[in-house]
Write a structure and sequence with these properties.
The protein is of the alpha+beta class. The protein contains 25 helices and 24 strands. The strands form seven sheets. It has a five-stranded mixed β-sheet. A five-stranded antiparallel β-sheet has the order 14-13-12-16-17, with no helix packed on it. The protein binds 2-(butylsulfanyl)adenosine. The site of 2-(butylsulfanyl)adenosine has 15 residues, from strand 3, strand 8 and strand 11.
Length: 670
Amino acid sequence: MSAADAQARLIELRRELAKHAYLYHSLDAPVISDGEYDALWRELLELERQYPQWRDAQSPSQNVGAAVRQDLATVAHQTPMLSLDNVFSVDEFRAFDLRVRERLGRSGDIHYICEPKLDGLAISLHYRGGRFLMAATRGDGVVGEDVSASLAALASVPAQLQGEELPHELEVRGEVLMPRAAFLRWNEQAQEEGRRVFANPRNAAAGSVRQLDAAIAAERGLEFFAYAIARCSAPLPDSQHAQLELCRRWGFQRAAHIAQGEGAAFCEQHYAALLAARDGLPYEIDGMVVKVDALSEQQVLGMMTRAPRWAVAWKFPAVEVETQLLAVDWQVGRTGALTPVAHLQPVSVGGVTVSRASLHNIDEIRRMDLHVGDQVLLYRAGDVIPKIARSLSQAVPAQRLPITLPESCPVCGAPVLRPVGEVVARCSGGLYCPAQRLEALTHFVSRKAMAIEGLGEKWLALLVEQGKIRHAADIYRLQRDSLLALDRMGDKLADKLLAAIAASKATTLPRFLYALGIRSVGESTARDLAMSFMSLDALMQAREEALLRVPDIGPVTAQWIVSFFSQPHHREIIDELLAVGVHWPQPQAQQTLAGTYVITGTLQSMSREQAREHLLRLGARVAGSVSAKTAALICGESPGSKKTQAERLGVAIWDEDTFLQLLRQSGASL
Ligand code: IVH
C-alpha cells in the first residue's frame, strides 16, 4: 500500500469506525458484527502504528465509547471510565504479559486475576453512607448519562449496602446486562408485536437502561455485575480479588468463573476453560479480562489515554462462518406475524451445527440484498440461533433467486397484509388460521369480548389439542362429556362452564365485533363501528370509503376490516355463530340532527355559544345567516333581521321552548 493509499484508508477507517461506534453506542443499533468492527479497529491501530505522523487526537483510537445522548441528564465522572485494550491471540497476550513484567522490573510470574468480559453496558454506581445515590453510564469516558432511576429499580443494585462499618463514600463499577433468556423472550415478543428487535443483548441492555421510564430496565430482566471499586473513602485491600469479595459482601453479584493465579500460563489455561464454559452461561461474554491483581502494581503501571496498562481484554474469536442460503420459508406466529426463516447449508458455528437462522422481516432481507443461493456470513449474536450478518453475494448471479413476501399465508392461505408503514406482515385469516387458533379463541372468550368466565387459555389449549374446538362456534357445541373427559375437570366446573357459555350467547354488537379479533379493531373502534353501521350486515358490506367516515378509523384499520369480511371462511364462522344462537339487541341509535341551523336573539336558558355547541354535538351544522336551505331558525328574544328573512323564505322558526324540547328528545344533557 502506498503512503497516499494508507492515508486515504486511515481517514476512511476513522470515519467508518466513528459511524459504527455511533450506531452501536448511541443508537443501540449496530449494522455490522462485533468481529467486523474489531477487524476495522485493528486495521486502524496497525496503520496508526506504521504512520505515527498521521496520528490524530480526534481518532477513535484516542477516544472511549460514544457521545452521550442529549435527552438524559449528564454526570461528570470523578475518575475517567476507561476502556480496555484488546488482544486476540496467545502471542498478543504473551506480549502484554511481557510488557507488564518489564515495566514492573520483574523476572518472575505476575499475580493475575481473570474475569469474564461481560458483554453489556459499563455503569458506575455511587453510594453515600451505605445508601444508593446515583448511577451513570460510561458515555465518552469523562461525562456519562444519569441512569439512576433505571438502575435503582434493579434487584441486583442494592438500595442499602449490607454489613457494618460501611464506607461513607463508595463508587462501584460494573456491567449491566440482559441475560440471554430475557433477551430471547423480549425479541420473540417484539417480533410478534411488530416492535423493534434488538441486534444483541448488549444493545438490548443499553436501550433498556437509557429509557425515561425507569421501570423498563427491571421489567426486561436486566442485571448488574460489579467488577471494580473506583473510589472508596475507607482503606481497601491491595488486591482486586479481595475488593471483589468486599463487593460481594456488600450485596453485589459478581460474574461466575473469576479466578486468580500466577503468570501467563495460568491465564492461558483459564481462557480455554472460560471459552468452553461460554455457551452454558446465562449471559453473553465476549472474552476474558486479565488484570494485574495488586493495586499497588496497577498504580506503578498506570494508564494510557484510553486504557490502563495493567489490564487487557483477551477477546474470544468471533464466531463467524460462511455458508450458503438454500431457501427461505415463512413461519406464522400466534398473532399471525410472518417471520422469514433461512435454511442454510449445515455448518458448524462455535461447535454447534446450524442449518437455520431467523431473518426478522422482509426489510432486513432487502437491506442485506439477500437472495436464495447467496454465500452468507453467519455469526452468533448472543442468541442461541445464529444470525446472517450479510450476503457475500459471490454466487453466480443467474443462480440468485429473489426472496419475496408471500401473498397468502403458508398455513391457511388467507391473504397476507402489510399495511403501509408497518414492519410486520401478517396473515389476515385470524379466526380460522390454525397457527393463530389458540390466540384467536382466547381473545374471543375474554372479558371484554364474549366474556365466557372460566374458559381460559389453559382449557382452550386442551380442547384444541383434543380436536374438540377448531373454531369459535365449536365452543357453543361443546358437550358435557367432552368437558368431563379433560384432566382435572369435575362435574361442578363443567356445569359452570356450560352455563357461562350459554349465557354469553346474549351479547351486544360491539362485543361481538371486538370478539372477532379483527386486527386493530379494539374495544372502542368496535363500539364506533356498531354505532355507525347499526348492523353486522351493513358493516360486512361496507367499503373502505364508508369505513373511513367512522371517527378514528384510518386507512390501515379500514383495510383490515374489509379484508376480514371479504374472506369466505370468516363469513362461514360468523354464520355458524349466529346459527348456534349468538345474538344481540339492535343498537340504539343516538338521534342526530341533520341540516343547518341559525340562532338569533337572546336565549333565557343558555348563551348563543352554548346553544351552538349543543347543536354541533348532535351533528347539526350552525350558520350565521338564513338561506333557503336552513333547517330552522332558533329565535330568542329581540330577534333581528334574520327572523324577517326566515319568514320571507318560509324557513321554520322555533322559539326557545321548542328548541329545548328538541334537545331533550335528542338526548342532549342540559
Ligand atoms: S474493567 C479500566 N472488567 O469492557 C478498565 N471491564 O472494553 C475498566 N467489561 O468498559 C474495566 N467485563 O464495560 C472490566 N470484568 C470486567 C469487564 C469489563 C466487561 C467492559 C467494561 C469496559 C469494557 C472495555
